[in-house]
Predict the structure.
Amino acid sequence: MSTEPSGGADLLSLLIHHLPVFQIIVPLVTAPLIVLLGRRAAWPLATLSAGLCLAISIGLVSLVGEGHPITYALGGWEAPVGIVYVIDYANALLLLIVSMVAAVVMVYARQSVAAEIPEDRHHLFYAALILCMTGLLGISITGDAFNVFVFLEISSLSAYALIAMGKNPRALVAAYRYLVMGTIGGTFVLLGIGMLYQMTGTLNMADLADRLAGPYLLNPDILVAQTSTVRAAFAFMTVGALVKLALVPLHFWLPNCYTYAPSVVSVFLSATATKVSFYVLLRTIFGIFGATMIAQTLQMESLLLVLALIAIVGGSTVAIFQADVKRLLAYSSLAQIGYFVLGLSLNNETALTGSLIHLFGHALMKGGLFMVMGCVAYRLGGTRLEHMAGLGKRMPLTMFAFVLGGLGMIGVPLTTGFVSKWYLVLGAMEAGLGWVVGIVLFSSLLAVAYIWRIVEVAYFRAPPDETRTEAPWGMLIPTYAMIIASIVFGIWTGPLIHIASTAAQNLMGGLH
Amino acid sequence: MLILIPLLLPFVTAALVALLGRWPNVRDPIHTLMAMVTFGFVLRILPVVQAGGEPRLELLELFPGLPIAFHVEPLGMLFAMVASGLWIVTSVYGFGYMRGHHEKNQTRFFICFALAIGGALGVAFSANLMTLFVFYEMLTLSTYPLVTHYRDAEARRGGRIYMGILLFTSVCFLLSGVAWTYFAAGTLDFRPGGILAGNIANSDVAILLALFAFGAGKAALMPFHRWLPNAMVAPTPVSALLHAVAVVKAGVFTILKVVVYIFGLDLLQETGANDWLMAVAGGTLIISSMIALTLDNLKARLAYSTISQLSYIVLGAAMATPAGIVGGAMHIAMHAMGKITLFFCAGAIYVGAHKKYISQLDGIGRKMPWTMGAFTIGSISIIGLPPMGGAWGKWFLGIGAVDAGAPIYLGLLMLSSLLSVGYLGPIIGRAYFRPLAEEDEHLHEAPWMCVVPLCITAVGCLVLFVLGDAIYDLVLPIVGGKL
């Protein structure tokens, strides 16, 4: 049983003690409340809830910063019997990303949603959005493997619904495709967890890792981890996570989803969903299997290295030729997913630090860029290249935000993109792979190509009409908040680097 | 504060220009005034550096152990003085030119101009390679809107090549060189004698040097030189200050600085890793001079002349001898003054007479005496004859070549001087000795705001010859105080 904090009924310390569970309960309660209270209360409630979540996750990050990881037993049932929430630097970072993006997106959503979603569905939309956030937060916070699956399904199901609400009829097809792929991915994860449960009798991640290192009952000469069932579980879980992550060649569902989803959904999913999926992959590899299945992990990593490089170069190259800017950004996301995985596959702390920083930076930059596209769609009704013509004159502030965010994608110094690139490059050198350095740096030139193509259209091509139609402040301010944050954290790098490098250390600690 | 104020002033200027954009008659004098103030604050550092002091400033920590930090040493001092000093005359010239031409978007133009100077000063004062890289990229990005100022198809093409080559070289080569250096040496600080000795295999030195030499694409070393002529689509003040002074000098400055403070002259001499760079610089020097001979567009000819003159400086660095370094450093200042004069003249001819091509310049010296007089002085300096500043740079480079045991490069320098007589001489000859075309009878000088600055820089060429000794004393400490 978890004990109440000594010192008694002090409300604040009680609150702090239960902070982890509030991270989930607050949005989980908000979602049905929104449906019940109807569309008038929807936006304020959702915004309030996201704001609270942000406050809670900031609180959690600072609590983690004071020392060792936080463990919270749900209902007082200690692991391995009960479900525990375990928060260390790695997932505190994820919680921060998800809730921060959610909070900014909610502010932004009021006008964007009003323009893109039929009014009678507003409350459903916000409820689904909050549910999706709940799922993503849940995946990040929990220390229980089965719980991961549950939250994964919560976030996925609500994401399908959100995407399907896009105006373009193709959104429905995209959502359906995602549903099929997502279900396969989710089922794979579930299968893996089931096999692990069969072999070990536990679902707690830390406990799983311990028991995998124990002798196998039927054949004491080998470890549990050396049985073919566990190997299959390893394969199922990683592949399941990779589907959700949309790593090449399992990426086909992603571009259409991001392209046809409502603007707000594109922003939210692009900034958070893939990050959380990557976190699942990290936990699976480092948290559960890494310590006992070193050989398989290494093999997996060298496979991932190849896939990551293909994703980086391929995604960026395909992005260059897109005629719809949202789709372009989606392909760019595929490339960025490659960067995350690259940092994981190089198998050293420096590179993993780069990955984690990139998770954070990319959430800000890509979220910001999709927000810019939301502004363009709001005013001009579309995000194809022809809508961008003369945008530097028609929506100067919006377009300037795109330029700033684009510089981050390229990885220009003094943006977060540069910080993560630097660590990835150093990591590749540490791994003795000079040619990987070359590919990483070359790929940032591909980013120049796809970003600059838009910039040229916006500033050099004559607009159809010269009237200034700047996006409303309610959308511009959140957009700039994201973009400027991505620059601020590229200059004031200390805290981010500290969190990411400690998290990388903790994760890799399981291996060495 | 000594360093911080001059570094911040260009950015303050940019902000002021942005705020005052609606009132051009206030905006432009303020810009010039701020340029003067900046130069004044840069000069305040000079006595400290001359006395052997090395003021330092750490701004913030970008990565653990890798701060954005500044440290003024003689080489950076010289570059900063050149960039900020010439900013003043260029700002006056810029107003004359932009207004004489009724250019659009002048506010944006002057904002980017000030930002570019800020970038150049940051490069000049940087205390480590990371800081240098940050400001180097800032310089590239802030000059892109200037290069593409006209927003037409030609500007777009020029801009693409500009960004493409500069970013390609800096990201693929320079950044990997920086990362490699950090990985090998564990630091990126500029230190006398270098940081790489003993930390890197001898066979790798040449490769790393190549990453830096080509990575500093702003130095326009062949085959990465094409951005420079293409950047000539920009308005002439940009060509003058940025593509004859700030941007290109940031490139050669980077190479000099890396050779002296990262590799160290000894390491290069021991390993012989610099031989190939001398050859490449020598080749660039001759080939670009020859190309210059063939061009009829005045600005393009000057651009190729710039490429050739930049290679002098790279050659000086590649010699890895004290005299070569000193010669290269002095040539930064000397070439800047001479070439900015020539570009000012080219711009004045364009504003006053609307002529871009050398073949149109017959007899123009009679109608634009001041401009062509200044052009003649600037040319003499570029050719490298006394009593103009350009003579000093060549003199020490020649000594450096002999010291390096490669007298062939002395011959190359002589040949290049002859070639520069070949590409600059005919322009002067045409202007003075050919008869004026009839339709040009009505021509007159450009507006005074263009003519006065170019006269000042022409006088400057002469002054630099007299000041040669002082500059020599200033830069000598970087090679340990003796040749």
In short: Chain B has a mean pLDDT of 88. Chain B has 19 helices and two strands. Residues 153-185 of chain B form the longest helix (33 residues). Strands of chain B lie at 56-63, 66-71.
